[in-house]
Amino acid sequence: MFRSVVEIGFDSESAARKALGAMSAEMPEHSRSKAKLEVDGSTLRLQVDANDAVALRASLNTYLRLISVVLAGLREGV
């Protein structure tokens, strides 16, 4: 089993919770990996568990791309 944890800091807990809400609606399901999102204060924590390194890399790329879109939306006030 492979695991990666990524923590992204936001300006406020409110912004982190908005990001969590946006991400939760878009979380893809994969048979070779599982992801968990949670907020701790103003930090969004993404944990990805995967069966192999290739699945871990692919999942991280997907989730980080989604987080990038969410961050851009928050900056634009969407």
Summarize the structure.
The protein contains two helices and three strands, in the order βαββα. The chain has 78 residues and is an alpha+beta fold.
Structure overview:
The structure is a single chain. With 78 residues, the protein is an alpha+beta fold. It has a single domain, classed as 2-Layer Sandwich (TATA-Binding Protein), CATH 3.30.310.50. Helix content is 49%, strand content 31%. The protein has 2 helices and 3 strands. Strands 1-3-2 form a 3-stranded antiparallel sheet. Helix 1 packs across helix 2 (53-76). The longest helix is centred in the C-terminal third of the chain and has 24 residues, at 53-76. The mean pLDDT is 91.
> At the first level of CATH, what is the class?
Alpha Beta
Give the DSSP E fraction (strand runs of 2 or more residues): 25-35%
Based on CA atoms alone, the radius of gyration comes out at 12 Å
What is the total tally of β strands? 3
The CATH superfamily is known as: Alpha-D-phosphohexomutase, C-terminal domain
> What is the total number of structural domains?
1
Rounded average pLDDT = 91
CATH topology: TATA-Binding Protein
**CA distance, first residue to last residue:** 37 Å
How are the elements arranged and paired?
Elements: E1 2-9, H1 13-26, E2 33-40, E3 43-50, H2 53-76
Antiparallel strand pairs: 1-3, 2-3
Helix pairs in contact: 1-2
Can you tag this structure with a few keywords?
alpha+beta, 78 residues, 3 strands, 31% strand, elongated, three-stranded antiparallel β-sheet
